[in-house]
Design brief:
Blueprint lengths: L5 E7 L6 H9 L6 E8 L5 H11 L3 E6 L3 H12 L4 E4 L5 E2 L3 H12 L3 E9 L4 E4 L6 E4 H8 L20 E4 H6 L13 H11 L2 E14 L11 H18 L8 H19 L6 H12 L2 H4 L12 H11 L3 H9 L7 H10 L2
Parallel strand pairs: 1-2, 1-4, 2-3, 6-10
Antiparallel strand pairs: 4-9, 5-10, 6-7, 6-9, 8-10
Helix pairs in contact: 8-9, 9-10, 10-13, 12-14
Length: about 350
């Protein structure tokens, strides 16, 4: 039996408006040695029918219909049935450039890579923006990974996710994932990419970054649940931080303690930032702000913790979190009455500790 070079795994859930664009972008690749695995994750619109229509016209397309279990489980289902040497994940409302598979597979084959990553364009109906990672491009040996990428494996010092946070810009060698038991945590429904991305870099024997090659198109939807406040998302964030602590907290080859704390700080700032977009009244907002700031995991960030080198506004908010100034945060940030003269007072309090 002849196996495809690449398994393209596409979780599908209620995306009838965008699904054709996504699948067509794969079918138009300059390299045609692939299979497409469509995981219809309990769609209630016509997405499942669209998947079946494509499968009828192209034997390289497999459709799996299942009850809704979210994207992490869908991607794992794709990994289980994938037959390609490499796997790539595409979100069903996104699309890829025609040369993506060919260019990434060529480099992966040439250098016998475990992992290769490209850049992407963030797009909406009104704009597009090229996105790149603040690391060098090119080849990374295991030694290079340890020297250059372990320091940002969980989180960058400037409170940003690691380079591999967007798994859909990565091409993985399937055997590498299986050998290291690398898959998605199915009980995490928000930011599920972050854990896998960190684990992959940690285990990879080599890595290549196609910096400046914008092969993936990420469609940004500002109304998505990723960009709004809800308690389930906060629970997922807490769970992610626990998993990172369990996996990397006792690593013998690098101390990831500070990165794990910065990761928790990132989630905290992110969730606090979404509160201003909620429809809750002032009392409910302040209650939620307090519950976040007073959470034991949030308090634990600041034990023997030096503030990251970030802009004054982020430092100010971080200090509000540290000192649990929920009402002040609501007035200055949620009500957008930001006062620069608050910063010196907060820094003075910090210096007297």
């Amino acid at each position: 039996m002849v196996y495809p070079k690449v398994s393209v795994i596409i979780p599908v859930y209620n995306v009838e408006k965008y699904l054709n664009r996504c699948i067509d972008s794969v079918l138009k690749q300059t390299m045609q040695d692939f299979e497409i695995i469509l995981i219809n994750d309990g769609s209630t619109d016509k997405s499942g029918e669209i998947c079946d229509d494509y499968a009828r016209i192209d034997e390289r397309i497999t459709v799996i219909h299942k009850r809704n279990a979210r994207v992490a489980a869908a991607r794992n289902d794709g990994i289980k049935v994938a037959q390609g040497k490499y796997v790539i994940f595409i979100d069903s409302d996104d699309w890829i450039e025609p040369q993506m598979l060919q260019e990434m597979v060529y480099k992966a084959e040439e250098l016998k890579l475990d992992l290769i990553m490209c850049d992407y364009k963030k797009r909406s109906k009104h704009y597009e923006e090229e996105r790149s990672q603040p690391i060098r491009g090119g080849f990374f040996s295991k030694e290079d990974i340890q020297k250059e990428l372990y320091k940002c494996l969980v989180m960058f010092e400037h409170i940003e996710f690691p380079p591999t946070i967007s798994n859909w810009v990565c091409l993985f060698r399937l055997e590498f994932l299986i050998e290291n038991n690398l898959c998605y945590d199915e009980d995490i429904h928000y930011c599920e990419d972050s854990i896998l991305g960190s684990k992959v870099i940690y285990h990879a024997n080599n890595f290549y970054y196609l910096k400046g090659h914008y092969y993936y198109n990420y469609f940004y939807n500002p109304t998505s649940t990723t960009n709004t406040f809800n308690e389930k998302k906060w629970s997922s964030y807490l769970k992610i931080n626990d998993r990172l602590q369990d996996y990397f907290g006792n690593a013998k080859d690098f101390d990831f303690t500070r990165q794990i704390k910065i990761n928790m700080l990132y989630f905290t700032l992110n969730e606090l930032g979404q509160i201003k977009y909620s429809n809750q009244d002032k009392e409910a907002r302040i209650h939620n702000i307090k519950s976040i700031m007073e959470h034991p995991k949030v308090k634990g960030i600041f034990h023997e913790f030096k503030l990251p080198d970030v802009n004054w506004k982020t430092k100010m908010i971080t200090l509000m979190v540290k000192y649990k100034l929920a009402t002040l945060y609501h007035e200055l940030i949620v009500n957008q009455a930001i006062q620069k003269n608050v910063m010196p007072a907060l820094m003075k309090s910090e210096q007297t500790k």
